[in-house]
Amino acid sequence: MENVINQSTSKIKGTLFSNADLRNLIVPLVVEQILVMLVGMIDTIMVSFAGEAAISGAVIVSQYIGSKNTENASLIGLVIAAFCFIFRMPMLHLFYGSVEPDVMQACATYFLFTLCSFPFSGLYNAGAAIFRSMQKTNITMIISMIMNIINIIGNYIGVFILHMGVAGVVIPTLLSRLIGSILIFF
Questions:
Q1: Three-state SS for 1?
Q2: Spatial separation of the C-alpha atoms in residues 144 and 150, rounded to whole Å
Q3: What is the DSSP letter of 90?
Q4: What is the pLDDT along the chain (186 residues), one digit of tens a residue?
Q5: How many CB atoms lie within 10 A of CB 158?
Q6: Is the dihedral of CA 51, 56, 57, 62 positive or negative?
Q7: What are phi and psi of 166, to 5 degrees?
Q8: What is the number of alpha carbons within 13 Å of residue 132 lying toward its C-beta?
Q9: Residues 6+ apart with CB under 8 A from 105
Q10: Nearest CA to 29 among 129, 138, 126?
Q11: What is the H or E stretch that residue 23 is in?
Q12: DSSP per-residue codes, 96-135
């Protein structure tokens, strides 16, 4: 009788996921999350080459938008985004009115393009969550790699070749999120 109980218990425990299944699920997920964080880190590094005003702008704006939880995007998120879009300059002046004009311009540019990228980031995250639930984390990892490659190459071109300042950093971020959201749905 005890042997039957042990066999049925091991079947219950062993039928969900094997160690190989877990490894195949978790490794791409961890790599993907590292790559997602890498986009922001690379932007911060590349902004440092865009000049002192761009560094200040990226740091100031990133403090406010960096904590956004894109997985809970909903109608209220759209309302907040619209509010931020319409009142972005008054908000930036309210919080940082005493900064130099070139710093304020860098803040405004970074804030505008980042606001525009949030819907694409939300779409990517929603699609990635679906793939994760289907245990297909390798797909999200590959798309995240593509997004990072686009972002890194775009940053290099925008900052070092086109000398676009903070726009040369944030436009590739917008493009990488746009392309990532398109790829996740295909």
A1: coil
A2: 10
A3: H
A4: 555 444 544 455 555 777 887 777 777 777 777 777 776 666 656 555 555 544 445 444 444 445 454 444 345 556 667 887 888 888 888 877 778 888 888 888 988 998 898 888 888 888 888 888 888 888 988 998 999 899 999 999 998 999 998 899 999 999 999 999 999 988
A5: 23
A6: positive
A7: -65, -30
A8: 16
A9: 53, 57
A10: 138
A11: helix 19-48
A12: HTTS-HHHHHHHHHHHHHHHHHHHHHHHHHHHHHHHHHTT
**Furthest C-alpha separation in the chain:** 80
What tokens were used for 12? Answer: 């219950």
Name the residue among 64, 62, 42 with its Cα closest to residue 159. 42
Please state whether the predicted TM-score (pTM) of the whole model is above 0.85. no
What's the one-letter identity of residue 165?
G
